[in-house]
Every structure is written in C-alpha cells, then in structure tokens.
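Why do we bother with a discrete structure alphabet at all? Because it lets us treat a fold like text: something you can write down, compare, and reason about line by line. To make this less abstract, here is a complete entry for Pyrimidine-nucleoside phosphorylase. Read it the way you would read a sentence in a foreign language you are learning: slowly, and without expecting to understand everything at once.
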Amino acid sequence: MRMYDLIMKKRNGRALEQDEINFMVEGFTNGSIPDYQMSAMMMAIYFRGMNEEETLNLTMAMAHSGDVLDLSDINGLKADKHSTGGVGDKTSLVLGPMVAALGVPVAKMSGRGLGHTGGTIDKLESFEGFSVDISTEKFIHNVNSIKMSIIGQTADLAPADKKLYALRDVTATVDNMSLIASSIMSKKLAAGADTIVLDVKTGSGAFMKTEQDSVALAKEMVQIGKGAGKHTVAIVSDMDQPLGFAVGNALEVKEAIETLKGEGSKDLLELCVTLGSYMLFGTNNAKSIEEAREKLYGTIEDKSALAKFAQFVKAQGGNAAPIYDTSLLPKASIIEEIVSEKEGYVEHIITDEIGIVSLILGGGRETKESEIDLAVGLVLHKKVGDYVKMGESLATIYANDKEKLKAAKERFIKTYSFTSEKREKPKFIKGIIE
C-alpha cells in the first residue's frame, strides 16, 4: 500500500477503506508517512469530504493510535461530558458533583486553557494543593469511592490527533466537519466512558459561529459515538455571551460554588441540569429525562452536590475550605467597575473578546508555557436583553497589574453594542441531538 495512491484516490473523490485509513494514521503517527504527504491528504479530504463510514474509521484509528484508558475496574456505567469550548464555561465544576452525588461515576480527563477559552484544570488549581497528576490507580480508586475524579490529558492519548491537528492548523484544513468531529471524538473514545454527552457551543465565543454549523457538528459527533457503540447525545448551547457572569479562574470557581449552593447563574444551572439529565438517563440511573432533572435539582436543594465537590477537591490534595468560604480563593489586588458610556438594551456582546480581556489581565495563556494569574478576570453585570443606564456598571474587573488593567478596560468597552428597542433574551438551549 502506498500513500501516493491513497492521496490520488481521495483527490478523485473516492472513499477510503478502513485498512487504508488505518495504514495512513499509523504511518503518520510513527513517522513513516511524511508531513507533506499527509498535508496533501488533508487538503484532498477538505475539498472532497468524507462519508459517514470514513469519518468513523478515521476517528477509531486516531483513538487507538496510543493509549486507550481502561475503565473496566470502575463499577457501573461511566459518563463523560465534553464541551467544544467557550468563555466562562465552568460547567464541569457544577455538573460533575451533581451527577456524582447521585452515584453515577464521573471519570473525566480535562485540559488546560489556551487563548481566550479557559481550562477546567486551571480553575481547579484555585484550590491550594489540588493536583490532577495522580496515578491511574488513584484515579480509579477515587471514582469507585467518591464517584468523581478529574485528571489531565496524557501525551499518549490519541497522539495521531495531536500530530494531525498541528498539521491542519498550518495548512488551512482545520474547518472541515469530518476532521473536526473525528478530532474531538477520538479523544473522547480513548478516554473510555460508556456514555458521552457533548456540549456544542454556538455563537461569537464558540469555535462554530453559526447555529447551522454547530448542529451539523453535533450530528456528526453523535453519529460517530453511536457508530463506536457509545450512548451519545449532543446539546447545542448559546455562546453569544459568556456562560454565567464570571470569566477568570478563581472567579469562575466562586460562581460554580454559588451555583451549587442554589445562588448562582440560572443559565449555568439549566445547562448543567440538561447535560446531567442525559448522563443519568444514558447510564440507566433515571427512567426518564424528567425524573433525571428532578434528581439533579434535588442535589442542589439538599446540598449533596456541594458536599461532593468538597469531597472531590480534598481527595485530590486540595484545600476544600474555600467551598464553604469563597473569600479564601485567590484575590486580586485591584478591583474596578467598568461603567457604560451609552444607554439602551444590550443588543450584542462580542464574546470571544471578553475572553481576550481576561487573557490580557493574565487569566489565560498566550502560549502553553505562559503563567496564569488565577485571581484576575471580570464579572459581568449586564447581558443580552438587559437595560443599561449611562454610567451604570457593565462589569467589575479584577487585576494585579495597572498596565494590564488599562489595556483590558479599553478592550472591554468595545465588546458591548446597544439598541433603543427592547431585545428578547436569547434562547439558551438551541437544540438536542440524540
């Protein structure tokens, strides 16, 4: 078998067989197929596309290109959630404890933030001593004993995807639906869960800017999951404004804790209950979605989800005291209000720019080596559809550097646009793909 022949086959619009895809992925991963040939293949796929079977085979080949996490020692059906990324997305911090409090094993691999999107691990490190660098044995023990553990993504998980994404990033072949879907799902399948619930963001702060593209991606990923024998559901949710109100690591942790106490963002709680209900239903822990929703709301009312969060943090070496006293979380030295220079209804928020404001303050990474300031960020006071008076506070900004604060404020004020006509608040859950 020759890579040259496979490139020509795809260039001419023909479908690749499973053994051909396996040969291609294996050869690229071990270095026997060079970058320039794989670049040509990616461009051929970009223009010619892949059918359903090809996309599944590519995903499976990438998932098995390295380690596949064996979760068979964990009792019961395992659930996992994946978000396509957004601004203020602290879902895992609320959803994980809610689901785990109901006895469903949550065995999760999470990443760090890069660019304007935050990472779950960075947020959790707001708890002094917390570590995701635990052994597989400790990970499995924690899930069996307290029903929840989160570890960092290993270098050996789907290495073909890591190499392929780096190549696509520099050859203008990132935005192909099959390649995006297979990239996301290869890591999820390698992570070993039985039920996969996907939170596909749509809007100005999301990877997919239009609802049409987000729904198409959701359908593609659900199809892959089902083809791989996994119970898979996708929720398409709004990212035309940040999720909740807080953006920034410790600030988002505080909002997550408030939500677990029943005092936080209604949008955040609604998303977590929607995602969680499909996790419960998919693992046979609820007879219906309605029953699952009732159970999840119950974990907020009886504070069992809050207690589970504290148990989880402590089990991974963290100081859980801030869960009961959020003033103990990392604090910024400078706190200022950003007031509106205009009056009217909030018409639009450039959400990815809000993420960049947090990045400028030091709350995100420009590169993988960048140091993060856990205390900085902002808390919004006005969202789409809200009425704002001139001079009223749009947000509170938290900083540790005056120069960064100045640059962040100048950037922030351009993110809001206003209208004199009353604007309906946007529908938060856009669709559910089963």
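What the structure line is telling us, in plain words: The mean pLDDT is 93. The CA atoms of residues 239 and 411 lie 19 Å apart.
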